[in-house]
Amino acid sequence: KVSRGPVREAFKRLAGEGVLVLNKHRGAFVRAQSRDEVRDMMCVLEVLAGLAAKLAARHINEGDNRQRLQEVFESAMHEGEEGETLAFLDERRRFYDTLYNIGGNRELQHMVPRMQISLLRLQFQAFVSRKQHESQLKELHSIVEAVLMGDPKKAERTARAHLRRRRLSLTTLPDDAFAAAAQH
Predict the structure, then answer these.
(1) Would the N or C end of the chain have less CB density within 10 A of its end CB?
(2) Partners of 23 in the beta sheet?
(3) What confidence tier does 46 reach under pLDDT thresholds 50, 70, 90?
(4) Residue 173 DSSP class
């Protein structure tokens, strides 16, 4: 029950942010990422996730940070038992949001959502094998352990290694994983 004007404006804004592609007479489509875009985005995310983990490790013993991280991590692991589901993707996003929040750097908290990581995860969800998924869960566990130990260097190193492996696994996917990006 919304008029077309606000919807059109929302679509234009999302297209301006690179989330949607607007095709005259065909409608709006969520924009897929190309192999090069994925590589570039993941290189940046590797650094940002490392920084987030380092900062979180420095602040883990403040307030209820430890409890919040443990709770969101356990929830992500619970959802992860079923594989690379939408519920798991949501919980993993909440995990990273909590990690960024604990670190206390407001700019970092604003930068990462702009990178459209959720869209990237959805684009490649079908290409993640059970073995890769289980490996990712173990890597997330290693990140949490380092943060909970309050070891900034290890937390940063572990988070960066996780994102580096993820980047390599995504950028070496077959061409059909990027076919939608080639069409636009």
Answers:
(1) N
(2) 27
(3) very high
(4) S
123-169: per-residue pLDDT in tens? 777 788 889 889 999 999 999 999 999 999 999 999 999 999 989 98
Helices (H), the chain: 4-16, 35-59, 65-80, 86-103, 106-114, 117-124, 130-148, 152-171, 179-183
Angle between the 86-103 and 117-124 helix axes, to the nearest 10 degrees?
150
Among 130, 180, 150, 174, CA closest to 58: 150
Nearest CA to 70 among 99, 93, 46? 99
Measured CA to CA, the distance from residue 72 to residue 12 in angstroms comes to 34
